């Protein structure tokens, strides 16, 4: 019986490991995440969407300004995934571990798929 009680205590302690220390009623630790979104050519991408996908900050999102800057002011300390997307660019997802105020720069690459303009002749099927 004593071994079973020791095992139960060890499991409870292990389950609490890695969790930020908080007491009842204490608010979680909050940090900022900010940075820029640029193109692979080096220019800022205005209007890019930056979204926290999971963790305690899931579904938090913002949009970059005209200089490609974004910012989240009050995110809980945690590890989570961030997705950045913009029209005409391939989206990017990156893991972030927030343990303090953090700056993350994202560089997006142009989407290689281009649409045919209405002035280009349509290609005929083989054999026509």
Topology at a glance:
Layout: H1 2-16, E1 30-39, E2 49-52, E3 61-63, E4 69-76, E5 78-85, E6 92-98, E7 102-103, E8 106-108
Parallel strand pairs: 1-7, 1-8
Antiparallel strand pairs: 1-4, 2-3, 2-5, 5-6
Report on this structure.
The protein is mainly β and 128 residues long. It has a domain at 27-108: Immunoglobulins (Immunoglobulin-like). Helix content is 12%, strand content 35%. The protein is built from 1 helix and 8 strands. The strands form 2 sheets. Strands 1, 4, 7 and 8 form a 4-stranded mixed β-sheet that branches. A 4-stranded antiparallel β-sheet has the order 3-2-5-6, with no helix packed on it. A hairpin with a 6-residue loop joins β5 and β6 (92-98). The longest helix has 15 residues, at 2-16.
Summed up:
The protein is 12% helix and 35% strand.
Q: How many β strands by DSSP?
A: 8
Please outline the major beta sheet.
Answer: 4 strands, mixed
CATH superfamily of the domain at 27-108: Immunoglobulins
Tell me the number of helical segments per DSSP (H or I, 4 or more residues long): 1
Helix content: 10-25%
Provide the structure class.
mainly beta
- State the low-pLDDT regions, or none: 3-19, 122-128
Determine the strand fraction and express it as a percent band: 35-45%
CATH overall fold name of the domain at 27-108: Immunoglobulin-like
Please state the overall shape, judged from the principal axes of the Cα atoms: elongated
Q: What's the order of the H and E elements?
A: HEEEEEEEE
Distance between the termini: 84 Å
CATH class of the domain at 27-108: Mainly Beta
Nearest-integer average pLDDT: 81
CATH architecture classification of the domain at 27-108:
Sandwich
C-alpha-based Rg, rounded: 23 Å
């Amino acid at each position: 019986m004593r071994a079973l009680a020791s095992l139960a205590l060890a499991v409870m302690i292990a389950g609490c490991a890695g969790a930020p220390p908080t007491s009842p009623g204490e608010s979680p630790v909050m940090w900022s995440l900010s940075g820029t979104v640029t193109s692979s050519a080096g220019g800022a991408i205005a209007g890019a969407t930056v979204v926290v996908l999971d963790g305690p900050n899931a579904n938090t999102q913002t949009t970059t300004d005209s200089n490609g800057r974004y910012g989240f002011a009050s995110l809980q300390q945690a590890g989570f995934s961030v997705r950045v997307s913009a029209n005409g660019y391939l989206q990017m997802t990156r893991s972030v571990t927030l343990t303090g105020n953090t700056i993350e720069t994202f560089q997006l690459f142009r989407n290689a798929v281009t649409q045919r303009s209405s002035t280009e002749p349509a290609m005929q099927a083989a054999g026509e």
